[in-house]
Amino acid sequence: MRFISCACGLFFVSTILHADPSASPAPASPISAARIKADVEKLSSDEFLGRGPGEEGEKKTIAYLAQAFEKAGLEPGGENGTWFQEVPLVRLDRQPGASLSLKVGAKETPLVLGRDASLSLRNAGSTSLKDAPLVFAGYGVVDSGKGWNAYEGIDMKGKIAVILANDPDFEGGRDLGFEGRRMAYAGRSGAKFEAAANAGAAGLVIIHEEAAASYPFSQLGSGDALPTMVYAPLTPSAIQFSSWITLDVAQDLLARIGLKLDELKTKSRDPAFRAFAMKDATLSAAGEIKATPFKSHNVLAQLKGRDRPNEYILYGAHWDANGQNGPDKTGDGIRNGAVDNATGTAEVLELARAFKNGPQPARTVLFAAWAAEEKGLLGSEYYASHPLHPLARFAGVINLDPHVVLPAARDIELIGVGRTSLEDDFARIAKAQNLRVTPEPNPEAGWYFRSDHYPFAKRGVPVLAFRAGRDLVDGGTAAGQKIVSAYNTDCYHQPCDQFDSKWTFAGTVQEARVAFSLGKELANSTAWPDWKDGSEYKPLRAQSEAERAKAQAPLE
User: Fold this and answer.
1) pLDDT band at 366 (very low <50, low <70, confident <90, very high)
2) How far apart are the C-alpha atoms of 308 and 163, rounded to whole Å?
3) Which residues lie closer than 8 Å to 502 by C-beta, 6 or more apart?
4) Which domains are present in the chain?
5) Which residues fall within 8 angstroms of residue 309, CB to CB, at 6 or more apart?
6) Inter-residue contact 379 to 296 (CB < 8 Å)
7) How far apart are CA 378 and CA 391, in angstroms?
């Protein structure tokens, strides 16, 4: 996960007063900052070796989580009466010596990986592409429903698609059918990869711009050598690599063939745009991938419902960070992930304790610590495609993936505004706890598709993702922005994402208290939250209505 600050105007989900938390204390809650702090300190210590999936740190992490759930008094919620669900994966390690270069005419320019470009090879063993032609494909969008197909009529076999980040609405000044300022799914790099692969491309190059990508290139560069992961068994990929190149590299390439980026962007915002050859421009890529199959694990616990045990709500957070994969300039090679996401995982543990110490809920409450979120939501996606309970009977999923450990705030931030009826309950509960709801400040980052709630959303389950606000009681939004920006610039996915004993976790507690109150209400309700009119997920929820009706019948 990551969060990029943006100086944007704030608007409200509903009309909520700007209450000062210091003037009217929030209702008492069983959520403890001290316990959350202790769990974060433990999980992000060097003992856990960065919590890398398939690494030694995974064994320590999942054992700690299972013991914590058991100590809290919960029951195992995994496979065959265990705390775990196995997630079969393959680790792909790029070996030393990989290379990438661009050529215009006879002049070849080698690119320094991690500085000028990233390189993600897709197949085990050796990959070698020599002088593959470059094709500019605009935003790389293929959406028949909207009448967009950048590759229509273009032979992409053996060619490399060069595309822009984000979607056609970004910087367009008007809504072209891609949700305006908020990124549409078609703007995600994964969607572009799929579209290029379906068109027959041999590779994909994305031009990096910080605003469009929502993160600086340094974050891509610093993670260039990190392993990638896919589901087992490994299958060959027709598209052999993907890469991001810096804006400077892209501008130089375009200038050498007589093209201008701004003009290309304008042309690419027309649904009639079609990809075209970049005259005399080619790319060469080479490298070797070592593939290692392994089993990672989701950690799952449950508190069975008193009256309707076959109806469910779920709290989730990902336990993984980035393990031991490359030292920084100080020599520290452990990426501890104290914020991302030891903090969200600690919240899930604390919510489990809070539920167990209270009255037994009517519905069953599930608690999940997901594997391999950092590698593409692999743990949560695996559960959603191999659910241990019918997804139709999930009343809702609440995801905890906080952006930064912040002091107490006056607000709480909602991701993906305007999608589910859960948002209305969320706003009401936040107001009761003296918090106003602030929609995410940078919806163009596409956060709704980038964390563990999304695999459930795309299957029709109402989900909610939110995090502590940055309008701090002490210092206001300026102080909160400063903390967020410093983390994003220096420590996201880096070894310096480490525990700080000075953290009070006051903002984390605010986030967890809202999550607890909302989940408790939902767990004792007979209502089934739904998607709002116009949501693409609403028809999916309607298809499973009969299954929810069956949930009211006695268990077989």
Assistant:
1) very high
2) 50
3) none
4) 33-90+294-551 (3.40.630.10), 92-291 (3.50.30.30)
5) 363, 364, 555
6) yes
7) 17
pLDDT digits (tens, 9 = 90+) for 404-414: 899 999 999 99
Cβ neighbours of residue 71 closer than 8 Å, sequence gap 6 or more? none
Greater confidence (12 vs 330) lies with: 330
The SS3 assignment for 406 reads: coil
Q: Which whole-number Å values give the CA distances from 57 to 46, 47, 489, in the listed order?
A: 9, 8, 26
Q: Is the dihedral of CA 444, 426, 3, 85 positive or negative?
A: negative
In degrees, rounded to 5, the angle at the alpha carbon of residue 76 between the alpha carbons of residues 73 and 81 is: 140
- Tell me the C-alpha distance between 44 and 340, whole Å: 9
* Torsion region of 368: left, alpha or beta (phi above 0 gives left; psi -120 to 50 gives alpha): beta
The H or E element spanning position 56 is helix 56-72
CA distance 296 to 309: 28
**Token digits of residue 426:** 């969320």
List, for residues 265-305, the tens digit of each pLDDT value.
999 999 999 999 999 999 999 999 999 999 999 999 999 99
Residue 28 has a pLDDT of 57
Dihedral sign, Cα of residue 210, residue 211, residue 215, residue 220: negative
Q: What residue type is 551 in one-letter code?
A: A
Tokens for 523, please give them: 């767990």
Closest by CA position to 295, among listed 383, 179, 379: 379
Token digits for 31?
Answer: 């959520």
The contacts of residue 13 (CB under 8 Å, 6+ apart) are 414, 417, 423, 426, 427, 437, 439
Beta strands in 190-339, from DSSP E residues, in sequence order = 203-207, 228-231, 241-245, 276-303, 308-318
Instruction: Report the 10 Å Cβ neighbour count for 307.
Output: 11
